[in-house]
Amino acid sequence: MAFTVRLLLFSSLFLLPVSVFAQTNGGIAVGDFLTATAANSSPWLSPSGDFAFGFFPLGSNDLFLLSIWYAKIPDRTIVWNANRDNEAAVAPKGSTVNLTANSGLVLRSPQGDELWESGTSAGVVAKGVMNDTGNFVLQDRNLESLWETFNNPTDTMLPGQTFERSRKLSSRQSETNYSKGRFQLLLQDDGNLVISTINLPTNLANAPYYATDTTSGTVAGSEGKELVFNVSGYLYVVRENGGKYNLEVGEAVSARDNYIRATLNFDGIFAQYYHPKNFTGNVSWTLRWSEPDDICQRNREDSGVGVCGYNSICTLKDKRPTCGCPKGFSLLDPNDPYRGCKPDFIQGCEEDELSRTNDLYDVEALTNTDWPTSDYVQLKPFTAEKCNESCFQDCLCAVAIFRSETCWKKKLPLSNGRVDTGLNSQAFIKVRKDNSTLPIPAPQHPCPDDKKKKSQTTVIRAESVLLGTSIFVNFILGACLCLGFVLIFRKKHVRSAEIVLDSNLRSFSYEQLREATNDFKEELGKGAFGTVYKGVLQIGSGVQVAVKKLNYVMQEIEKEFKTELNVIGQTHHKNLVRLFGYCDEGQQRLLVYELLSNGTLASYLFTDIKPSWRQRIEIAYGVARGLLYLHEECSTQIIHCDIKPQNILLDDYYTARISDFGLAKLLKMDQSKTHTAIRGTKGYVAPEWFRNMPITTKVDVYSFGVVLLEIICCRRSVDVENNCEEKAILTDWVYDCFLGGALDAIVDYEVQALGDKTTLENFVMVAIWCIQEDPSLRPNMRKVVQMLEGVVEVQVPPCPSPFSRACLKESFVSQV
Ligand SMILES: *[C@@H]1O[C@H](CO)[C@@H](O)[C@H](O)[C@H]1NC(C)=O
Ligand SMILES: *[C@@H]1O[C@H](CO)[C@@H](O)[C@H](O)[C@H]1NC(C)=O
Ligand SMILES: *[C@@H]1O[C@H](CO)[C@@H](O)[C@H](O)[C@H]1NC(C)=O
Ligand SMILES: *[C@@H]1O[C@H](CO)[C@@H](O)[C@H](O)[C@H]1NC(C)=O
Ligand SMILES: *[C@@H]1O[C@H](CO)[C@@H](O)[C@H](O)[C@H]1NC(C)=O
Ligand SMILES: *[C@@H]1O[C@H](CO)[C@@H](O)[C@H](O)[C@H]1NC(C)=O
Ligand SMILES: *[C@@H]1O[C@H](CO)[C@@H](O)[C@H](O)[C@H]1NC(C)=O
Ligand SMILES: *[C@@H]1O[C@H](CO)[C@@H](O)[C@H](O)[C@H]1NC(C)=O
Question: Would the CA dihedral through 212, 216, 219, 221 be positive or negative?
Fold first, then answer.
């Protein structure tokens, strides 16, 4: 499998005299220093001479890199370098590095300005050691380590190096630029080893595109404790319980005879290489393994812009991504194909109105190319011709993708573009015939004021597209998406909802389900209604299901059970979990649902790292639409009665899917019990449950309001652990903040949300409408959906509970 990879560096550029040996024996005294000079900078060598520490000349411009490299091989591979947070990471000719007692290594420019210092943990440096392992260590008098490069790694790990949690590798900018790049490998605090993109210049990480999944999720103690690259050249995560998760398969090469390294490459690939120590002739590094297999397919909305940048197309070549631009687009940075592409034209609706579209655009057709995350509308059933035409006539549309009767219309900037031969799709890209930019709008209408205003906004919109693109280049904005959720991506282009089972419910025998779940072996969760197990139905190539074993054996409701199941069975909506079938055998009552891969909304929202604002908005829309369907659009009205984040699941695409609907009626007898427990803690339950009032769909609206606030704030509705009493009850606190005009506090100063203030404010107001104590004041779900979507204007809501602290304060203020 292994194949040779030319080293990233142009070795011919680096003609360091190999013969220069500073006989340090690995030990460097305080006061020793090195100067960056082209001619005879002699680095500090390790005792064996394998590794060198010093100024590495960067070929041209008299620039040097303070770094560690392999001293005995011509492919001068850098394994560590200093000063990475600096844009250039380089030091000019004449710079010095001194080993000092109190500040460790100090790098100064020729003018004497400090460029970088290692610092030390408390202690006085006695000496430095360039170890044969490739580790440069600062030691105190007792040979205790005060600072070492192994604990401050850049993009490479070496045998003998170990990572604790929260330590990371980050890639370099490009083959020849050693400042910090946009890929990061991190052993998370939850034990998961992930690789993700970060949105430079911040360290905000997007959803990972590779994860080992070594969390406590499955078995207690299985979370990763450290990442070990052992001296034999094996790389693995050691679990808390001592188990190992190997990153590779097969035998490692001999660490005695080979140099071995694992590098997070500038294109996001984490790979292990080896190079023989004793060699003659033209020998280079050999790839042993790399992850992920196909990085082009690993990008998705929440993993940021993708390896190739905006508007580009990623193709896998020798396991590495290569990037190109579609016709009508060109590289933003001609020297760096990984920065993305810019359109060679501006598309604007105003302008398109002026001339007929046909005169302006050509359509370029591509097969098996997709930009999976930039669509704004989906049409189905549709034909390829209609798809092409629909995009052609739509001034917002940049590209349309057609696949299996479905047409996705996409807008700029396109992200995560890739070629996938398995796709069987067609792409229609609109390309302007000439390169003209927007014409200066001339007033042509009787009411010029209005027209002018419209024209201006178009110009601004067009500009902001361009601006957005160029900002991306500088990594200032980017899609600021963060996600702490563990993802294992699958190459899967079929939504799980499309698994077609018989539209009527199937009846299963208990034995069948016992088999399907391997004797109820793997428990997925426990709810008020029962315990859920994972299973596989032997239909076709096997369909994964979640089997819910209902807790309470309900006598005397035989008929009701069937009727109710029929109602549930007839529901069909993309925001609902599908019920496949059931088992009703003696004492046993089980329900068989489709299995959703991404867990509950609760586990998604309430983690340390906030999911992206965009994604949370989509989830809120999804829940609202699902509820609207239950209330108004299915044949029999269904009141859920138990809307909460634990009952909202996320599918492969992080679409919200409501579960457990229809069960409330079935398990009526159980309700009083459940709800007494919640009473007084102000959870998701509408006040009418406690007030002898009729239960209507408005109870769901109330619960939705609470969930919406949780989605906005990424915190639980009741936070008893929060010492701050004011914040303990989410609904009260949000209303307080809302009154005080402190939207930013509500989202904890989250940049993305505040950048979308209109939506944020809208959502907060809708949520406050939903949690009105008086059910008649709450809007119905149709109105909620319309308000969320901005179709209907949202009025300023009144105080939700007239007797709450916040509202009394409000009336006090207004009296004053
Ligand atoms: C490396 O990349 C950074 C950021 O793009 C840039 O500012 C810097 O000039 C580059 N350094 C070199 C040596 O090209
Ligand atoms: C580094 O060492 C050189 C030579 O001894 C000396 O001139 C210079 O002042 C030193 N710099 C620092 C910061 O100690
Ligand atoms: C240096 O490397 C040797 C193995 O070559 C190792 O035993 C020793 O602990 C290392 N010393 C330090 C200070 O890391
Ligand atoms: C390194 O790890 C491999 C695989 O887990 C193991 O077989 C080997 O004994 C380890 N070597 C050392 C020196 O610990
Ligand atoms: C290096 O390889 C050559 C030929 O392959 C062999 O003769 C020599 O003994 C080797 N040296 C060492 C130190 O292994
Ligand atoms: C070394 O080998 C590589 C391919 O393995 C080749 O591209 C390169 O030109 C060779 N260099 C020399 C100096 O022979
Ligand atoms: C797409 O539609 C445009 C406009 O009708 C037409 O000119 C073009 O030939 C169509 N392309 C394909 C591949 O159908
Ligand atoms: C449009 O721009 C592209 C790329 O800049 C160029 O190759 C092409 O010749 C231009 N076409 C016209 C009609 O100016």
Answer: positive
